[in-house]
Amino acid sequence: MRHRPRQPRQPSLADALIPLATLALLIGGSLALFGLDALDGPIQVALVLCAGVAALVAVKNGHEWSEVQTAGQGALASVTSAVFILLAVGALIGTWNLSGTIPTLVYYGIQVLSPGWYYAATALICGVVALSIGSSWTTAATIGVGLVGIATMLGVSPAITAGAVISGAYLGDKTSPLSETTILTAQMVKVDVYEHIRRQVWTSVPAYVIAVAVFFVMGLAHVGETDDTVSTATELDALSDVFWISPVNLLPLVLLAYLSIRKVPASLALIASALFAGVLAAFTQAEVVAAFVSGTGNVVVESIKAVWQAMATGFDIDTGLSEVDRLVSRGGMDSMLLTLWLIFGAVTFGALLEHFGLISRLVDPMIASAASTGRLFLTVFACGFGLNVVAGDQYIALVLPSRVFRLEFARRGLAPTNLSRLAADSGTVTSPLVPWNSCGAFMGATLGVSTLLYAPYAIFCYASPLLSVLYGYTGFRIEKTEPLDAAKERT
Fold it and tell me: Which parts of the chain span the membrane according to its record (predicted)?
């Protein structure tokens, strides 16, 4: 008699809750035991174990192990572009320090920016850059790194500065027509991208104004706490003694901006800028290059070795001033490996939850119980933010709610632009608040500030979804359409 494969069972509520309870237990335990050092391995282990629990639940329900493997492979394939972007960012930070690009940004920035309005200026600068190029990751990895470095020199808070960087960066990620998440959200909800952006303005602009105002107040409150100008002058002198400071050093930044505006894929644009910075360093920072690789006199060999090493393991220097050393001794592809480990574990766990119906088992009752428009909006937000927490990936948090709630919005006569705005407010902007989310992990690794430290200050990432949910309860800027009746739904 031939063996018939078992028909998989639908997951129970307990099946859906077990992996989430495991996640809460292991993440909470790792934070309790290791504190901020939990991101250096313990949380990664926790996420891998959670993925294992989700896999066992799927097998218990009758799914073959080959299905689990296929779902895991799909999860890793979905973050391929993020992997190359992260490695490219590591290389870029290394060569931008070698070429003096980041030191030059810091040198000029210290002389132009005042501690009293530094946080607000950071949010404004990053907002303009992100709107121009449409990428929060590129904004943070370039201008953001420099601004956090300037904060350290000025004696203002790097954590608040990182929050301001992210607030500005995600304004562009959410509302720029060049942003891939903006385009993806519009496509998933089936609305015109420019219609989507016009509706986004009603939450994005007020949230951004709130964020800038809060940062301005924070800056004024911290004026008396900043270091004296003598310390800053000493560090400026150290930078100018080690590096040749010139606007020429900013050419890698100009190249990156140009390539981004021309819509060159992010990983290629970043690598091109990193390589260009390395070549530039051979001409503009010859002494730095020779000292970095303990030169033997062969300029060509020294230059190639320096660029290669800066891209691989980062740039390193000893100036005798800890603040300067901490600023420029960074980067390298290997500095992103812990972050990649974190992302692999998180997206695999999230993909298993989605593929085997564990997320749907939790979301469907929430939809049924959301009787009012306000409750429905709150449910979408909870789903988007929750997916950022449990799935660890911004794209899952955008795509799944857009797909799941689209029909429900149509049934209730709510225009799809309401859902596209809400999905972006819920999925896009909350992603950098979660340490093991791909966006949170990237921002923490790139800016050199732990996600747990900057998260309280990412004001835009709180204000935008709160306004979106508030509009749902009040009816403000909620567009209506003819409800989709049962007959149309069947056809």
Answer: 12-36, 42-59, 71-96, 116-134, 205-223, 243-261, 268-293, 336-356, 376-397, 452-473
